[in-house]
Amino acid sequence: MSLVAVLLLLAGVSEAAGRILPLVVRRPGMPRTLVAVLLLAGGLVEGAVFALWPLTAWTLSELVLSPPPPGDGLVWTPDLVAPLVLAAVLAFPWLGPLLHLVLFAGVGAGLAGPLATATGLGWWSSAGCVAVAGTGLGVAVEAVRRLVVRISAAEVRKTREAREPIA
User: Fold this and answer.
1) CB of 11 closer than 8 Å to CB of 85
2) Which of 27, 58, 153, 156 could form a disulfide with 74 if both were Cys (CB 3.0 to 4.6 A apart)?
3) 3-state SS track over 21-71
4) Which residues contact 31 (CB under 8 A, 6 or more apart)?
5) Cα angle at 80 between 38 and 57, to 5 degrees?
């Protein structure tokens, strides 16, 4: 389990780096400690979202099936999470959203097989649960990101207005 946690954290940090590095390039004066804190915080959040993906897909499959599927749920294993790490490392978001989407679709397809086996759903139904779970988690994280950016921008404006002398 600790190997899975390390791999999820690595995937999360890689994903966060793809979002933070373009910001650092546009603002060369950012303190290194701030960049490190942003990378670590972003990596933890992204890693948590990745960790929730199979659990969310399992929960959706429970909603689809009339009797709940037997078992404790779908969990990451090193062989399932390794393609996710590869996808996160290879597909920084700034390298292209299409490549990013294709690689994550491949990882999702890899999750669909074990979900289908564990639940008794067909592969396509399982793939649908994985896709809806991944999309929902992605939309939720993006909404939080935009909210944080909006709040941060408002704070920067307030700080600038407070520093400027009133004429």
Assistant:
1) yes
2) 58
3) HHHHHHCCCCCHHHHHHHHHHHHHHHHHHHHHHHHHHHHHHHHHCCCCCCC
4) none
5) 80
CB atoms within 10 A of CB 79: 9
* Whether the predicted pLDDT of 49 surpasses 80: yes
- Residue 107: enclosing H or E segment and its boundaries? helix 97-119
Angle between helices 97-119 and 123-163 (to 10 degrees): 130
What is the residue extent of each domain of the chain? Answer: 2-163
Q: Which two tokens stand for residue 158?
A: 């307030």
Spatial contact of 46 and 13, defined as CB atoms under 8 Å apart: yes
Residue 62 burial by Cβ neighbours in a 10 Å radius (0-12, 13-18, 19+): middle
Q: Is 75 helix (H, G, I), strand (E, B) or coil?
A: coil
Measured in whole angstroms, the distance separating CA 153 from the mean position of its chain's CA atoms is 23
For residues 134 and 57, what is the distance between their CA atoms, to the nearest angstrom? Answer: 8
pLDDT in tens, 99-117: 667 777 888 888 898 888 8
